[in-house]
Each structure stands twice: as C-alpha cells, then as structure tokens.
Design brief:
The complex is a heterodimer of chains A (65) and B (352). Chain A is an alpha+beta fold and 65 residues long. Chain A is 17% helix and 28% strand. Chain A is built from one helix and five strands; from the N terminus they run E-E-E-E-H-E. Chain A has one helix spanning 33-43; strands spanning 2-5, 14-17, 20-23, 28-31, 46-47. The longest helix of chain A is centred in the middle third of the chain and has 11 residues, at 33-43. The radius of gyration of chain A is 19 Å and the shape is elongated. Chain B is 6% helix and 46% strand. Chain B is globular, with a radius of gyration of 23 Å. Classes of the chains: A alpha+beta (65), B mainly beta (352). At the A-B interface, strand 2 and helix 1 of A face strand 5 of B. Strand 2 (14-17) of chain A pairs antiparallel with strand 5 (91-96) of chain B.
Chain lengths: 65, 352
C-alpha cells in the first residue's frame, strides 16, 4: 500500500474506479500501488515518504558517588 | 383492466460490487425518467437432445445453460441525471467543490484506467408495469449516445447489460423508490463547440454549429463472465436453472463523435481535422447559476485527441451543412482521452 498526499483541489472530494470508491477526507490517503500510480499521473497526487525514525538515545547512566 | 404503457415505471441503484444486488428499503432506489416504453430483454441460452441416440426424429428434452439480459432507454438531457449515464459507461469519477462553491460540485467522469480496474460500476435495475415487477441486478453501462439536434433537449440513449439474473423486485414502489425533482434541462441551443490544434488560438464554431452526437461503445468479455467455478445460477443452488455471470469485464472502448455545421466562408478548424492534425475538441453548455454562488451549472465534454474519419455534405432546413465524424483517442503523454465535467448541486454520484 502506498500513502499519497491529496491535492488541495480534491480535498473533501472522492475518486472512484468502477465500484471502488476512495473518499478524500483529511490530507492523505493510502491506496494499492496501481491506484497510486493512476492518482499520481492523472490527478497530481504526490507520494508521502515516511520519515525514518531514529532510535531514542539511551539515557546516560547516573554515576553513583 | 388493461395495463397501458403510461403506467410504466423504472428505477435503479448502485451496488457495492458486481454480484450483490441492492436490498430494497426506504428510498434505496432512484426513479429513472425515460422517454421510451422499453422493457428488459431477457435471453435464455438452451440446448436440447436433438440427434441424441434416443430413437426419435425430434428432440425429447431441453435444458437451460445460461441467461443474459439487456435494456435500452433514452434519457432526456437533465444536467442532474446525465452524469449517471456517463459514469456507468466510462467508470472513472472524481468529485470536488469548485472555488467559491458550497453546494456547487464539479463531477468529472473519465474512462476507467485498465491498470486500475476492468469492472465498471454495477446497478440494480428495476422496472414495473402492471403485474410485471422485476429487478435485474448487476447491470453495467454497455453503450451511450448523447445527441443534440435543432432546438431540442439533449437526448441520451443508454444501454445496460446484466448478469442474466432477473427476479421479483421486492420493491414497494411508493416508499423504496425516491422520486427526484427539480431537474434542469440542457438544450442544443446552449451548446458551444471549440477546436484546438494546440498551437493557434482555439477555433470557436459559433453560429455555424448545428448538431452533435457523442457515442461510447463498450466491448465486454461477456462469455468469460460465466465462471463455472463460481456456481452462480438463476435460482441459487439450482444448476438446472441456468448460469448467470459472476463478473463482466471491460475489454475495449470505442468513443466516436460527429458534428454538423453550416458550410461557411471559413472552416479552419474542420479543415485541420481533414488534414489529420490531432485536435482537442471542447463541447460545452452553460446553464443557470447555482444558489447564488456565482457558479453556473455546466456540461463540458473535452476530447483530448481526435482524428477525422468521414465528412458528409448534407442539408438542414434548406441550409447546406457538412458533418465531420471522428474517433476519440488517448493522448499517451497524459493518458487522457475524454472527460465529461458536469457542474451542478448534486453532492455526489459515487452512489445513488
């Protein structure tokens, strides 16, 4: 599945392919790859790149006096 | 008492998938207004034992193998109803709110991308006259022809093809079929025609415009839709009742157009078509404003890349005309072929 940003002019709307309805509420939508490709070329959706989460640094051990 | 054609009634409702018929319920169906008296054509494919070694010269038995059905109607050009016909035939749909609009919506209908799906949206179709009260589930848009002639309303011929299933509707027509009103008509006198070769300013045909016809013809994989492994029969679980389809996939689409115009002193746009210059053609009509939002109701047909196939000289009310015919193609650089945009105050056509 691929996460896409919804273009401004389509926010709150919907797209449909035959019986398959995709509601465009919010700012992004997650769709299957072939749908994503079509939405990108036909409607100007852009793919959202997931940010790599950096592992939290372990807290420094308190040195006992 | 005899039943007269004036007592006929039709309706339809979208399905969630190809095989699941719409369940009757309060306003679950929308009434379908048409100009004709047509009813569903149900065809049964049968075989018999003619020539079997039973010792007789005539067959002794017949059995049912499968069912097929189709229906054709002519819908008057109401701007609130035309998107339904186009959406059933083309399959791709997007709805947005135009800038400055609230109740105004822009509905854009395009051909289904074959990379995404080959299954058009299905509707459960109902019809009634006298004791005949049936539902044909799983019907798809097979062909459409939108025409504008003289001063008349636009007319849209729509043909649907089903799975072969036909059953009692189970519909209470008084409460299950929503009667829509307040339609806005689109007349041929509202139409504007523009030809664009992509380099010069678009040619506006203006007063020389006379008539148009836009046709979509779908070719389905209709034989492949009977899937033996699915065990779908006219009567569920009864193989003797005959198979019905489990899917009906779109194979090819043929989109054609023709325009009739007066022969004038200049016909630059059409001359370019004759030279096979790929042209973008925009056919549009504007109507009344929507709820004081400064947005007009509109029908805009954009054909991205058309080629000429025929020209005929004719006559209309004593004026010499010529008719250009062509085929709508796909522009491979954009993937676009035809787009039907309708602006009106219907919230959505995703389902109805």
């Amino acid at each position: 599945m691929i996460k896409l940003s919804i273009p401004k002019d389509l926010k709150g709307g919907a797209v449909q392919f035959g019986n398959e309805l995709i509601e465009l509420s919010g700012t992004s939508v997650t769709v299957r790859p072939e749908v994503a490709e079509h939405l990108k070329t036909r409607f100007g959706f852009t793919e959202q790149v997931e940010k790599q989460e950096t592992p939290a640094k372990p807290e420094p051990k308190k040195e006992s006096k | 008492m005899a039943v007269v054609t004036q007592d006929r009634a039709y309706g339809w409702a979208t399905q969630s998938d190809y095989v699941t018929a719409k369940t009757p319920g309060a306003n679950a169906f929308k009434k379908l207004i048409v100009t004709d008296n047509n009813f569903i054509d149900h065809q049964v494919a049968t075989q018999n034992d003619d020539g079997f070694s039973h010792g007789y010269n005539t067959p002794t038995d017949q059995w049912t193998e499968s069912h097929d059905n189709s229906v054709s109607h002519t819908m008057p050009g109401f701007i609130e109803e035309l998107p339904k016909a186009f959406k059933l035939v083309l399959g791709g749909y997007a709805v947005t709110t135009p800038d400055g609009g609230t109740t105004a919506k822009s509905h854009k209908i395009t051909p289904l991308s074959p990379a995404v799906s080959r299954q058009l949206q299905a509707v459960s179709y109902i019809e009634k006259v006298g004791a005949h009260d049936i539902m044909a589930p799983s019907m798809l848009g097979e062909s459409l022809s939108l025409q504008g002639n003289d001063q008349g309303l636009l007319m849209c011929d729509l043909s649907l093809r089903g799975s072969g299933e036909v059953k009692d509707s189970g519909v209470t027509w008084g409460s299950h079929v929503d009667v829509l009103t307040g339609f806005h008509k689109v007349f041929n006198t509202q139409m504007k025609l523009e030809l664009d070769n992509g380099s010069d300013a678009p040619y506006e045909i203006g007063c020389n415009y006379r008539a148009f016809n836009l046709s979509v013809q779908n070719e389905f994989l209709d034989a492949a839709g009977y899937k033996p492994g699915c065990n779908r029969y006219q009567t569920s679980g009864d193989n003797a009742s005959g198979a019905i389809r489990s899917e009906l996939l779109l194979n090819r689409q043929n989109i054609t157009f023709n325009f009739t115009m007066d022969i004038g002193s200049t016909n630059e746009g059409f001359d370019e078509l004759v030279k096979q210059t790929p042209m973008k053609i925009v056919l549009s009509a504007e109507g009344a404003e929507i709820a004081s939002e400064g947005i007009d109701r509109a029908l805009i047909v954009t054909m991205e890349r058309v080629f000429y196939t025929a020209r005929q000289i004719g006559e209309s009310n004593g004026v010499v005309t010529f008719e250009i015919s062509g085929t709508v193609m796909t522009d491979v650089s954009t993937g676009k072929s035809i787009e039907i945009e309708v602006v009106n105050d219907v919230a959505t056509y995703a389902t109805w």
